[in-house]
Structure formats: structure tokens, C-alpha cells
Amino acid sequence: MPEVQLLADKIQHEWDFAIQYGIAQKEVKEYIKSNLNPIFLDRPYQINAVSKFDFFLNHSKNKPCGDPIHLLFNMATGSGKTVMMAANILELYTKGYRNFIFIVNSTNIIRKTIANFTQRDDPKYLFAPKIIFDYKEIHINEVDNFETVPDEDINILFSTIQGLHGKLDKPRESQITFESLAENKIVILSDEAHHLNVLTKNSKNKGEEEEEKNWESTINKVLAGHSENILLEYTATVDLKHPKILEKYIDKVFVRYSLKEFRNDGYSKEIKLIKGELSHDERILQALILNLYRQKVANNRNIQSPFLPFKAVILFKSSSIAESEQHFKRFLTQLKKLNSKHLNEIKTVGGSTLKKALAFFEELGISNQQLCEELKDNFREERCIVINNEKASEEHQIELNQLEGDKNEYRVIFTVKMLTEGWDVLNLFDIVRLDESKGTKATTLSEAQLIGRGARYFPMSISTGDEMYQRKLDKDLGNTLRCIEELYYHSINDNSYIDTITKELEEQGIYNREQEDPIRVRVKEDFKQTSLWEDGFIFTNEKIKKDGKKITSLKQVHESGLQYKFHIEILQLKNLLYLTKKIKNKSKFKKILAQKTFLGQLKILELAFV
Amino acid sequence: MDKIPFYQFEQLKRILPNLKSKKQFLTDENYVAKVPLTIIANEERIKTLTANEKLQIAENVLTAIKNDLSSKITKYEGSKKFEGRPLKSYLEKDVLMMVSQPIDDSKKQYGLPMTGNRIEDFRMNVSDKDWYIYEENYGTSEEKYFVRYLDVVITELKKKYTDIYLLRNEKLFQIFNFSNGAAFEPDFVLFLKEKDTDKKMTYQLFIEPKGDGFIINDKWKEKFLEEINLKANIMEIDMLYEDDKFKVIGLPFYNYRTRQKFEAAFKEKLKIK
Predict the structure, then answer these.
(1) Do residues B89 and B59 both lie within one domain?
(2) B151 with B231, same domain?
(3) From A527, which residue of chain B is nearest by alpha-carbon distance?
(4) What integer pLDDT is reported at residue A562 of this predicted model?
(5) B119 and B236 both lie in a single domain
(6) Å from A40 to nearest chain B CA?
(7) Are B73 and A530 a contacting pair at CB < 8 A?
(8) Are residues B119 and B50 in the same domain?
């Protein structure tokens, strides 16, 4: 979008300036870092966003004066919106905010969200086991209202927008009212719930339109209740090409991190379209074999990952509930009847990826007969889950968000439309389109979005020191483990459909056709005549286990050396920013900084023995 | 310290086998006593820390040390011995690589060939250069600058050396940091054989071009490259090659903006003008 300057652009500019002068730092403050689950916040774009938010609250000229704040975080699916929310909550806690309203976009994910934010034993719990501010442990409470909540804690009211509107519209005893909400400053966090109203206005009928207007005005009314209120929206999709949306959000879009950047930075799986002249049953069988292949490869190659033993998940997508149920029955029959004959047949018609998989099984000494048995066992009925309606999706939301766990048996999902926002699955490796029709532009769009959401990277490390959460094999496509970095979309074999879905995926920035045609680098033929080629060596060393007996200091254990910082109080640098404008000289400014604060060096020893 | 279960002596001993007591852990300069701690606060405030505050800080720091010790602990090291494997065995397969979105500008060169490159600084007819092992170089701009540099000094090198070949390390091999075993894939390795000497010394140089933004983060790699010169031992290869001697050399990062540093080291190590 040329010519338009979003808030995000202004903030970027201001922030760059602040960093240059040492007013802002490209780092996460200790009180956020130490109070969050450490595995969640270490990517450069996250650190920048957190740092910018801190900067915005403390120093920015663009912060509204005396009015509520309304910001939008536009971040790709899978890029960690929830952890951004958690970090923002901690930041706002230091600014005296205690009461938070968390709006989720559907009841399907409300329990899962509550678990992520408030339950310490949840595997995806966002905070540190103990949250400590000013030497005191504080808690995160799930609440129904803010009447009698502990004022040292973080209190969160979780609700859907419908729920919130309902409560406020027809207040009952001991429930929230507009008046009670206006007593203290509050923060509204909205996860994919709110902006969509404007977006879809045109396609809605009158009644729905009316309803959404009401929701929007409810939020606005709550927001206006207190001059220090804050509304933070988080979304993966905001269509700024739409003039109305652009108008509404031009001064609210705070950070942007697109799916394209996300993919280019290596945080997603790569998508591969698997197509070919296969029958319905053959397409399913090929997908099952490839799904099992990933599992075998991962378990064979000794990878490190938080989610072991490795399990691959496969998703079958139908176009209607009736079809989905039918497909499920048919699948079970197909699996029952499966025999080596089918495997021999598919060998001749399957694509190059399938051939690679079958060769791998052969190498492991797995016969066709054994492969049949393994397929039947791995994808047996108890391991299938059918999610065709809201209710099923809501009931199973916890299981569906823990598909990576070793206690979770599910690995086959039949669905029509699940996979809405917030489905957090890392080990989905195959999506099979069961519908044989070409579909419409709208269904293709939703398929592309489904693929984008399924493309979260499965965290693994192949050798020590590599980045657990980033793709590692873009330059080494021949590596067997590459298939663990790929999501296969098993498409119907219809050229016009393939063309539309490809365009749709490219539009989203998660795919480009060229990638199916990798660059090949060869050794020159002339070099193969040289003596270096014939007799030459490459000398390398090896990684070996350290001899523990030799360790006599912490330095030997911890390579980069330990060092710690501790903030007694958050420094008020606000005034200093205005000073910098007068003082162009950098060193002079630093002097002023030094006078105002004091960096004390204390020995840990002194502290430990008090 | 007693509040945190991690600091039971048996537990500590597992990570630090030579530790004699918990007291030593806290007071010995080799352990915690020398770990720097910075307190940031107003001057007034820091002079008047209460005992309770100090206890809180101590608790926080000990928790942080615990986290660091249990997560970033280094159980590995890189061997000093360098062993030779046939070059051929590394090069049997073609290299396949994916480039997300090649963009034709001077900064994003990765994925673009040198042959016929739009930007003159990066243009080189790779197939004409007998010293470049692969048919093409798709590397980053820094890598391309380095290859162009080698093209300039090659005449000088050929006066002293024969069998000069440059290999781009396309995920072929890794070397491992001596101190913690962290894996490192140097971008290039350069082979040269001394001319006209009895020793018949063959050199293998590890070369890592590095863009401005990455130098600080990857400092350990440069340090490791330097250590190679002092610490690496070549495993003698018996069999047929009794006469041949080998030496591995590490060079400082190649960075176009600060290339003088690399060029000086390169010339010094290879004794050329």
C-alpha cells in the first residue's frame, strides 16, 4: 500500500530514533522475560513488538493524550499472538492495570484460552510458574466481574463478544454493568473477534448486521467508560485494501508481521501440493503412507523436540457434514480391506514423493504386508476424530489443542470447517481434500486459509545449536528429514482447481510455484578429472562428550558466561525523550542519563548471606 | 539457596563434579562469586536496600542461575583432532536448494547465479574458472564479494601453489566448536598445494563471509576459526600418502566493508603479496 502511512510506520520511525539515542532498547524488559514461559518469546519480530509497545506507552508522541488507546496487532497465524498478549498484559500490569477483559472469537476456544492463560499445568501455559513483581508473587485469576477481585493480581474476564454484549445488555445481579466497569481502568484484549464486523458487512443480512453493530457499540461504550482504558486487537487478517477498514484502522495498526515474512524467516512448514491422476481411494492411501513416512523418518533419525515420541496428524476435509460422515465410513471400510495388492498398485501410479517414502520403507526392511498392518494400526478407528459441528469442536477443544502430546491418541481428523482461528497444532502434516468438485472461489479461499493455519513449524533440532523453531533444510532438500518441514496438501487432480488454489496460496504469501522446482547445483565435469577429486580429503573434527571430571568452574559449563540485571524500579525516561530534542550531542545526553540513575554492582555473595 | 530444590548438593554435583560443598559454590571465584550482577535503580534507593529486598534479589538471581545452568549447559566439546574423509564422498549427490523469493537487488543476492548477474560486482562467468568446483554460485552478496576477491588474487596464488580449488560448503560438512561442541558450517573451504617444496604441504582453509548484521552474533565462530590455527591436530593418514602433509587454517570473517582485515590475514597465512 503506497502513500498511506499507518500508525505502525510512524511508530517504527520514532522507535528507531529512540533506539539510536538509547531511550528504547531492542530487548524485552526483565519483568516480562522472567515472568513469561521462556520458550515463547525469543524471535526478533516478537522482541521488537514488545519493545515498541513499551516505548509507545512511555514515550511515544503518537500516544493519545487523555483518551482511551486502541491498537491493532496484525500478526500472521502461528507467529505467537497469544504470547504477545501475555507480554502486553505484563507490561500493562506495571502501568497499574489489574483488570482485563479477554474477548475470544468463538466458544470453541474459550476453555483452551483460559487454560493457556491461567492454568500452570497446561502444557502451553504462557507465564512462568511464579509471576513476581516487586518481590511479591502475584496470580492470574479468571473472574466473572471486577467487584471483589484482588487488586495486586491480574484479573481476566474471558468471554465471547456475544456473551459480553448479552451480559451488559441485560444486567443481572453480581454481574458486570457498564457502570461497574467504568470504576477502574481496564484493558480489553480482542482475539480475532472484533474487526471482522466491518470486513464482512456487505455479505451480511440485515439482522446480522444489526447485531454486529450492537457488539461494536458495546465495545466502544466499555472503552469510553474510563479515559485510561485500552483496547488491543490481535488479528492475522486485516484487509487494509478495503477503504472502510483502512479508514478505521490507519491510526490503530501498531505492528504488522505478514504470513510472507513469517515464512521467509523460516518459522513455517513449507507447503507442497501433491497432485496426480489418482482415484479417491488412492489419494487417501497415498496420504496415509506419506503421513506414516514422516513418523518413521522422525523416529528413525533421532531428532530433538519438546514433542516426542513423534506423531504425525492427518486431516480429511469434506465439503458438507453429510459427506464428511460418509467419507469417514468409507475410510474405515477402505482401511479394513487394505492389502498388499493395493500397495503394489499405488506404487505404479503414485508421485515421486510417494516413491521416496516407499523406498525408505524398503530400506528399513518393511514388507508390503507389514506396511499394511502398520497403516491399519496407526489409523485405526479409535485414533480418528470427527469434528463436524461447533458442539463437537467445543467438546474436544482441549484434545485438539494437544495433538502433539504423547498421551493423545488421535491422529486422523475428519472435518468440514473446523480449524478456525486459534487451532494450535504443530504436527499436522497432511491435508486431504475429499470433495471432488472444483468448489467456489469462497471455498478455495477458506481451503487456502486452512492450509496456512496448518503450516506451523514442528519444533525440532537436528544437531546442537540449531534453531528449534526454524526451518533448517531449505538448502539441503535432499535430506531425509526435509519431509518433517513440509505440509502436504493432497489436491484433487483438476487443473483449474489447482490453478486457483495455487494463486490463493501465493496471494497469502505462504507458497510460490517456483519452489516446486528447486535450484540444482552440480560439480563441474572437469573437476572430476582432477587429483583432488580422486584422492582429496576434507578434514573436520567431531563433537564429543565432555569429560565431566575436568569441570572446575562455571565458565566451563556455561559458554557465554553468566550475568544478571535487576531492575528495582522502572525508570521514568519520559521526560528525557523531550530533552533529547534539545540536546543533539549524544554523549551529553548520556551524562544526563547517568546522573539520574545509578548502576550498582553488588556481589551475589553479599546478597546470599543476608 | 535452601528454598530452591535445585541447589541440593547432590544435584549440583551432577553438573559440577569437582564441587566440594555448597559454600564453595557460592564463595569460590570459579563459581558464583565472580558472576556479575547489575542492579538498576536510583542512587538513593540502592544505598538503602533492606535485608528483605536483598533476599528477594538473591532469590531471583539464584533462580536465574538455576535456569541457565539447567538449560544452557554444555555437555559437549569439539575434538582437537581433525580427520580426513575423501572429498568425493561429500560430492556424490547434487545439491538441491529452495529459495523462497529471489529478489533482484544488491542486498538479497541469495538464490541468484553469478553468471550473468545484473549487478556488476557480483557478475562472474563461473564456468570459466577452473578453480571453482561447482557449476554455479547462488550464495549471498558477501559470499559473492569473496569469490570475486579470490578471482583477483588467483594469479598471485598460482605462483606459489597448485591444485587450487574453492568449494562452497552446500550443507556438506560441519565443524564443532572446541569449547562446547556447537556445530558450525563454514561457507567455503579452499584447497591449495604448495609448489616446489619437498614437504608437499596441502592447505585447507575455512572461510566464512559474513554480512554486517551477523558479525556480533556469530562472534564465537570467528573465535573458533582463530583457535583452529593453534589447536587443530591433523590425524595422519597413512596408506599411500606418506609424503603428503596437511594443515587446516581458519581465517577471520570476510566482510566486504571491512575486507582489509581478512585480506591481510589471508595474504599472511598464504605468504603472498
Answers:
(1) no
(2) yes
(3) B133
(4) 62
(5) yes
(6) 15
(7) no
(8) no
Q: Do residues B103 and B223 share a domain?
A: yes
Half-sphere exposure of A234 (CA within 13 A, CB side): 24
Domains in chain B, number: 2
Q: Is the pLDDT of residue B255 over 80?
A: yes
Residues of A in contact with B206 (CB under 8 A): none
- Using an 8 Å Cβ cutoff, are B39 and A570 in contact? no
What is d(CA A135, CA A132) in angstroms, rounded to the nearest whole number? Answer: 6
Q: Which of residues 224-263 of A touch B (CB under 8 A)?
A: 263
Identify the sign of the CA torsion B29, B30, B32, B37: positive
Give me the residues of B, 224-253, that contact A with CB < 8 A: 232, 234-235, 237, 241, 246, 248
Residue B117 resides in a domain: yes
Residues B242 and B174 in one domain: yes
A151 Cβ neighbours under 8 A, 6+ residues apart: A98
| Structure confidence at residue B97 (pLDDT) | 77
B61, B75, B130 member nearest A546 (Cβ): B75
Each residue's pLDDT tens digit, A176-200: 889 889 999 999 999 886 555 544 4
Specify the CATH number for A67-203+213-257; select among 3.40.50.300, 2.60.120.260, 3.90.870.10, 1.20.1530.20: 3.40.50.300
Do residue B103 and residue B186 come from a single domain? yes
- CATH no. of A270-516: 3.40.50.300
Contacts of A42 in chain B (CB under 8 A): none
Percent share of chain A, pLDDT over 90:
44
Q: Is the model's pLDDT at B24 over the cut of 60?
A: yes
Q: Which of B71, B89, B111 is the last residue of a domain?
A: B71
Residue B76 lies in a domain: no
A607, A609, A610: which to substitute to probe chain B, counting the most B Cβ within 10 Å?
A607
The whole-angstrom separation of Cα A112 and Cα A109 is 5
Mean pLDDT score across all residues of chain B = 83
pLDDT band at residue B19 under the 50/70/90 scheme: confident
ipTM of the complex in this document? 0.82
Chain B residues within 8 A of A568 when measuring between CB atoms: 39-42, 45-46, 53
Tell me the mean pLDDT per 10 residues along chain A, length 610: 79 88 83 85 89 91 89 89 94 95 85 91 89 90 90 94 87 82 93 59 61 81 93 88 85 91 91 90 96 94 88 93 94 95 91 92 94 96 88 78 85 80 83 91 87 90 82 88 96 91 89 78 91 90 78 64 55 36 43 42 44
> What single letter denotes the amino acid at residue A276?
G
- Residue in chain B closest to A552 (alpha carbons) equals B18
| B48-85 confidence digits (pLDDT tens) | 777 777 777 777 777 777 766 765 566 788 999 999 88
Q: 542-571 in A: which are within 8 Å (CB) of B?
A: 542-546, 548-549, 551-560, 562-569, 571
Coil, strand or helix at A189 = strand
CB contact under 8 A, A536 and B86: yes
Closest CA to A551 of B218, B28, B59: B28
**C-alpha cell read off for A286:** 497415498
CA-CA-CA-CA torsion sign (A334, A340, A341, A346): positive
**Residue span of the structural domain in which B203 resides:** 81-270
DSSP β-bridge partners for residue A138: A131
Residue that is last in its domain, among B18, B51, B71: B71
Give the model's pLDDT for residue B25.
Answer: 80
- pLDDT at B12 > cutoff 70: yes
Taking contacts as CB-CB distances below 8 angstroms, the residues of chain A near B41 are 567-569, 597-598, 600
B257 within some domain: yes
- Closest approach of chain A CAs to the CA of B94, in angstroms? 5
Q: How far is CA A505 from CA A168, A174, A453, A499, A584, in A?
A: 41, 49, 12, 10, 48
Chain A residues within an 8 Å CB radius of B68: 558, 562
- pLDDT value for B200: 77
From chain B, the residues in CB contact with A526 under 8 A are 130
Domain spans, chain A: 67-203+213-257, 270-516
For B183, the 3-state DSSP assignment is: strand
A479: which chain B residues are within 8 Å (Cβ-Cβ)?
A: 171
**Same-domain status, B67 and B101:** no
Gap from B264 CA to chain A (nearest CA, Å): 24
